[in-house]
Amino acid sequence: MYISGMAWLYKHPRSRFWNIGWRVGKKLFNRSTKVADHKEAEKQLAIYNLMADAKRENRLTEDFFNSLAGRELDRITLRDGTEKYLEKCKGATQPGTFVRYEMVLRSFLEFVHASDTTPLIGDIDAETIQKFLNDVRPRTSATTANFYRKVLNAFFTHALENRKIRNNPVKAVSTYKASKEEIEISRRPFTEEEIRAAYSAAPNDFWRFAIVFGLYTGLRLGNVVTLRWRDVDLKKQIINVVDIKSPDKLSIPIVSPFLLNLFGELRRRSPKATPESFIFPEYAAKYLAKSKGGENNAAKLSIEFRSILVEAKLLADYGSGNPGRSHKRGDVGRSTRRSVSPLSFHSLRHNFVTMLKERGASQMVARELVGHDSDAVSQLYTHASEDVIRKSLKKLPEVFK
User: Fold this and answer.
1) Mean pLDDT along residues 226-253
2) Per the confidence metrics, is the pTM higher than 0.70?
3) Are 29 and 21 in contact, with CB atoms under 8 Å apart?
4) Averaged over 138-147, what is the pLDDT?
5) How far apart are alpha carbons 228 and 207 in whole angstroms?
6) Contact residues for 147 (Cβ-Cβ < 8 A; gap 6+)
7) Is residue 374 predicted with pLDDT exceeding 60?
8) Start-to-end Cα distance in the chain
9) 148: pLDDT strictly greater than 90
10) DSSP string covering 198-266
11) By CB neighbour count within 10 A (0-12 exposed, 13-18 middle, 19+ buried), where does 179 fall?
């Protein structure tokens, strides 16, 4: 046996090849050099010892030990791995979910200055993940920052399962807790007076329709803006859509006379529309268009809706300094976070559920109409019949007369 530094050369009595042996802690490892010539084996030993020195000085990734143990990982760059992962997700997730995943991962690529050659997936450590999330947190809520962490965790878990990395670095990164401000200022439903004020302030047919539709269906803004005529059965007076953030298929009866009249008027204005046509093609195109960061324009539409609430004097404009409604006075740019706004388009979803429950609708009916929290939840309850759902919806107040 020849010992040199950390690793050493030795021959097994029944083999003509030299082996390299090394110790990690109390464990012994070995790997065949695949050469019988001692000088050639010493060359490999010298390379391994150089790598070991670099490892001890934190100048080498853990790929060294995987290589020595004969358990080499697939060496793949972060950018290449991200593209392959997104391609996999594209057909396995809902469009809205995919867009959000893509946005987070492309933001991470930008943060680490990923190129076509560096860094490797295995070079990303918990410290880098933490720095990225700490950069995100000041301009988002704790919930959003934790969603970023969730996406990264899914990505690195996939990499681990496919032998791209030894450990998932996200596991060492903790989730964020909501700030006192975020807890105190939470989303709330509109009052009926506020809904009518927003409707009056709406600048066009799309936003007037969206407010009424959101109130009486509880659907998200993404579902509203991408609604197609195939999703609306005016004869049966029912809407059939897939929740934009989950695989839930939702069937929502149209019981509001005001909403039915809106649909009738929109249909009369679109005589050439096909079942595949978007009801509001201009807004659908705006929503589905990708920005430079790769995400859709949902945020822009949310800001547009916020401007309606400002016009209706339900929220203050940015820069006013009112708590819960703007940037802090004097703060501008991406590095500052807008305080949590108590009203948004999502508040109409709160209105829908609140109105249902205040009028005696069961939890089962509410879940049937707005979707389920998870696959596990959907398996734990019985589906409500359309007749039961329609009766519950008919109890909702007619806010628009």
Assistant:
1) 89
2) no
3) yes
4) 87
5) 16
6) 100, 104
7) no
8) 94
9) yes
10) HHHH--SHHHHHHHHHHHHH---HHHHHT-BGGGEETTTTEEEEE-TTSS-EEEEE---HHHHHHHHHH
11) middle
What's the alpha-carbon Rg for the chain, to the nearest Å? 29
What is the C-alpha to C-alpha distance for residues 7 and 41, in angstroms, rounded to an integer?
Answer: 12
Question: At a CB cut-off of 8 Å and minimum separation 6, what does 398 contact?
Answer: 256, 257, 258
Q: Which of 294, 298, 335 is nearest to 106 (CA)?
A: 294
Phi, psi of 152 (to 5 degrees): -65, -40
- Write the CA distances from 272 to 203, 224, 231, 266, 284, integer angstroms: 25, 21, 16, 12, 17
- The residue type of 149 is R
User: Tens of pLDDT along 270-292?
Assistant: 999 999 999 999 999 988 886 54
Q: Give residue 71's pLDDT.
A: 52
- CA–CA distance, 146 with 144 (Å, rounded to integer): 5
CA separation, residue 71 to residues 6, 7, 57, 63, 64 (Å): 19, 18, 22, 9, 10
d(CA 287, CA 299) in angstroms, rounded, equals: 9
55/328: higher pLDDT: 55
| Amino acid of residue 371 | G
> How confident is the prediction for the chain on average, in pLDDT?
81
Nearest to 241 by CA among 251, 256, 229: 251
Q: What are phi and psi of 286, to 5 degrees?
A: -65, -40
* pLDDT tens, residue by residue, 24-38: 777 788 888 888 999
DSSP 366: H
Confidence at residue 186, expressed as pLDDT on a 0 to 100 scale: 63
Residue showing tokens 């899914």: 154
Return the DSSP state at 240.
Answer: E
Residue of 118, 110, 95 lying closest to 288 (CA atoms): 95
- The token duo for 262 is 């809106």
Q: Please, are residues 45 and 6 in contact by the beta-carbon 8 Å criterion?
A: no
pLDDT digits (tens, 9 = 90+) for 335-347: 444 455 788 898 9
Phi, psi of 394, deg, nearest 5:
-65, -15
